[in-house]
């Protein structure tokens, strides 16, 4: 796989298609980074590429940030049960065992998702790759105690962590 800089200079369409789903249903992040990446060889490095995309999100206006946050699925939620997740999300939730929940675990995730969404008005977001159900449930419970503003910041941090994991998956790292 070509690095982001070479890929973008090879084909805009190939670049956009490769990275389209890095940010859940939010291609604007990749589209906004396109011109910056095209004109700077430092984006041959995937960490620099990720840093640029992270900054685009962190510098976006609140409305765009909230749209991005709200585009994420609930963990072990309706979208997962109905097979409506992106390929990345499906694989990530599967890696954490969220596709093999017991009835009690499903009830617990449903309750935690509802409590979290009721309190913050956006879904709980966590980079679940490398974590298990118990770690996720513990993190869920801890974060329910946070303020709205700290959870908004944490959601954006987790979204950027998810994107880094996805970039590394694309490049087999």
Write structural notes for this entry.
This protein is an all-alpha fold. The chain folds into 2 domains: 4-66, no CATH class; 74-170, Oxo-4-hydroxy-4-carboxy-5-ureidoimidazoline decarboxylase (UraD-like). The chain is 66% helix and 0% strand. It has 10 helices and no strands. It has helices at 4-10, 12-19, 28-38, 46-59, 62-70, 78-81, 87-95, 103-120, 133-143, 148-170.
Summarize the structure.
With about 170 residues, this protein is mainly α.
- What order do the SSEs take from the amino end to the carboxyl end, as H and E? HHHHHHHHHH
> What is the overall pLDDT average?
87
How much helicity do the residues have?
55-70%
Strand content: under 5%
Reported CATH architecture of the largest domain: Orthogonal Bundle
Low-confidence stretches: none
| Relevant CATH superfamily of the largest domain | Oxo-4-hydroxy-4-carboxy-5-ureidoimidazoline decarboxylase
Question: What's the layout of helices and strands?
Answer:
Layout: H1 4-10, H2 12-19, H3 28-38, H4 46-59, H5 62-70, H6 78-81, H7 87-95, H8 103-120, H9 133-143, H10 148-170
Helix pairs in contact: 1-2, 3-4, 4-10
Tag the structure with descriptive keywords.
single chain; 173 residues; mainly alpha; UraD-like; globular
